[in-house]
Fold these 2 entries.
Entry 1:
Amino acid sequence: MTTSYDFDHMPEHVRRYDEFPPLFVPGYEASHAMAAAVLSERIGTQASLLVIGAGGGIEIARFARQFQGWRFTGVDPSQAMLDLASARLDAEAGEAQWSLVQGTAADAPEGPFDAATAFLCLSFVPDDGSRLEQLRAIRQRLKTGAPFLMIHAASEPARIERDFARFAEHARLRGAEPEVIDTAVSVNRTGIHILTPEREAELLVQAGFRLDGLFYRGLWIHGWEATTCAV
Ligand SMILES: C[S@@+](CC[C@H](N)C(=O)[O-])C[C@H]1O[C@@H](n2cnc3c(N)ncnc32)[C@H](O)[C@@H]1O
C-alpha cells in the first residue's frame, strides 16, 4: 500500500518547510483560525484531538496557544517532519499538551478522540483503496458525532491545468522563487493525488462520516468539515 510522499528524502524542503505553506496555500494562516473557530464551537475548551500529518507542528502550535485545555496526538510518517514539530512544540506548547507518533492514521492510539484534523496530507495517499483505508482509520479513532476537518487540493480533469497555473501564479505573486515554484509544481504533479470534490465527498461518506460542507476554500485548496456517524 502506498501511504505517503517521503519528506525524509527532501531535506531542503524540510529545512525550509515553514516558508512554503503560506506561499502555496492561499489563506494558510487564516485556514487555521477558521478551523480553530469551528472546532471551538464543536468541542469546547477541554478536548483531545488527533492531528494527522502533524509534521512541522504548525497547526498544533497555533491551536495549543489559543486552547490550553486541548490535548493533541500528532501522527506523521516522516521522522524529519516530526523532529521539526517537536522542536516547535517544545518552544511553543505546554509539555503536557502534545505527543507525537511516527506513522499514519492506522498507527495512532485508539482514542476515542473528540476531534481530528488532516491538513495538507491525505492527498499524498492514492485513491486505490488506501485513501479510504486511512479515512476509516481516522473514523475508528473518533467518538460518534465528532468533527473531522480535512484540507487539501481538489479539482476536475477539465480544469486541472488551469488550477496548476493559478497555483504557480499565486505563489509567484506571494514572492516564491521560480525554482521553488517549479519544484512545487513537479511534486504536486507526481506526488499528490488530486481527486474531484465529488469523489472526496463520496470517500468521506464511505468511511463513515457525514459531510457538513466546506469551512474554508482558497483557490483549489478545500477545507471540508465532516462528522462521524454512529456505527
Ligand atoms: C505539506 S505537509 C503538511 C504539514 C502540516 N499538516 C501543515 O499543514 O503544515 C505534509 C505532511 O503530511 C505527511 N504525510 C504524508 N503522507 C501522510 C499520510 N499518509 N498520513 C499522515 N501524514 C502524511 C508528510 O510527512 C508531511 O509531514
Entry 2:
Amino acid sequence: MNSYFNEEIETMERDGLDSLVEERIKYTIKYAYENSPFYRKWMDENQIKRSDIKSHEDLRELPIISGKTIREKQPPETSDFEFRSIDWDKVFTVHETSGTSGVPKTFFLTWDDWNRYAEKYARAFISQNFAPGDRVVVCASYGMNVGANTMTLAAQKIGVTIIPEGKCTFPVRIMKNYKPTGIVGSIFKLIHLAKRMEAEGISPHESSIQRLIAGGESFAEESRDYVEELWGVDVYNTYGSTEGTMCGECYKKLGLHVPEDLVHLDVYDPQLKNFVDDGECGRIVLTTLLPVGERTGTLLLNYDTEDTTVVVSRDKCPCGRTHMRIMNPEREAETFWIAGNPFNRVDVEQAVFQGENMDYLTGEYEAFLYGDEDEGEVTMRVSMECFHPDKCDHELIKDNFIDTFLKYKQGLAEAYYDGTFNLIFNFTGPGGLEFYRIKGRPRRIVDRR
Ligand SMILES: [Zn+2]
C-alpha cells in the first residue's frame, strides 16, 4: 500500500530534491542574516557573505553550534535570546529543554514551525500505514517537549484520532473502551504495558492494536524484536527533538526517512571537521531549511545534536520515497570507552535482549563501570531483572551476553580475554535494580570510574 502525505515532495527524484535543498539553504541563510542576531553578528565578524553560502558543502563555512552555544547566547549570559529569529508578537510557544546539564535551552516556535514539525510526523504516520479511522494513544509527555503535541497536530492533518494519555501508565480499561489501533511510547513503556495487560487478563496479541511507534530513546534491534513478539504487531521507529528533526521509519523498516526538504542532516567525523561517507558512523549535525518566504522562531544552522548515526541510503526506498534513510541514532552521551574502545548503551541492551534470554528476563537492566585503567583493570557489572530469580538460567544468559557484547568489538574482546576488562553479572528479582530507587528516567549505564 503506497500513499503519501505530500507525494510530490516525498517522491521527488534526487536531482530535483537536491536543487530544492539548495534553494532553501540560500533562502535560510538570507533569513538568518536578516533575522538572527547570532548569525548576523557572526557573519559580519567573520566576513562571510551570505551569498557565499549556496550549497550544503558551503555550510562548513559556518560554525557548528551546540546546546552549549544556545545557553551562552541567552539570558543571563546575554541581554537577549540571540537565536530568536522573529519578533515576539509572532512567537506562538516557548519551550525549554534541559538535557543533562540542568540549564535549559530556550526555543521559540511560531505557528508555521508547528505546522512544519507536524507535517514531518504526518508523513511518517502515513508511511507507517496509519489512516483515517485509526486511534492512537500517545504515551509521550505533553508540555515543554514538543513531541506529543506535534504528533497530535499531525494526527489532525491526516484524520487520525488521538488519545492523549501523556504516559503509559493509563488504566487498562482505555484499551477495552476505546480499542486504540496504535500506541506511541518508548520500548520499555510498551513492554510494561503489555505485562500489565497480561496481568489483567488481556492478551496484547488479541488487543485492538495494529502497530506501535517507538521513540524517545534509541534501542537495540533485539529489543524491538521482543516488543513485536510481545504484541504480535510491527513496531516503527521515530526520532525527533525540539530542534526539529522528526524522522520516521516507513513500513518497510529500512532506516528512518529524513524529511530532506525541511531539515538538512549532515554526518560529521568525531572532530566535527568534515563529513563522513555514507555508510560510516558519525555525528548528526542539523540545519533547519525554510521554504522560500516562510519564517521561523529559532533558527539553527549546523546544530550538533550529540547523536550519532549512519546514512543507510540516498536511493529510492521500496516504499517509493526518495528521502535519505539513516540508522537508529544513538546518543553520544551514552557512549563509554574502555581501553580505547567505544561501546554504547544500545550494545549492552542488545546483549541483554538475546532471544533465549527473554524466557527468563523482564528486559530491565543496568550496568556499572568500576576500576582504573591506569591500574590495569576495568570491570562492568551488569544487573538483569529476572521474572523468577530461582528459575533463571544464569549460565545461558551470561554466555549469550558475553558472545553478543564482544562479537564485533575486537579491542574489547582482547581486553576481556587478557583480563584487563572484566564482566560480572548480577541477577535480581522484580524491582531489585538500583534505578528503581531513583526518580526519573532510568540511567542504564553508570560510569563509576
Ligand atoms: Zn521507505
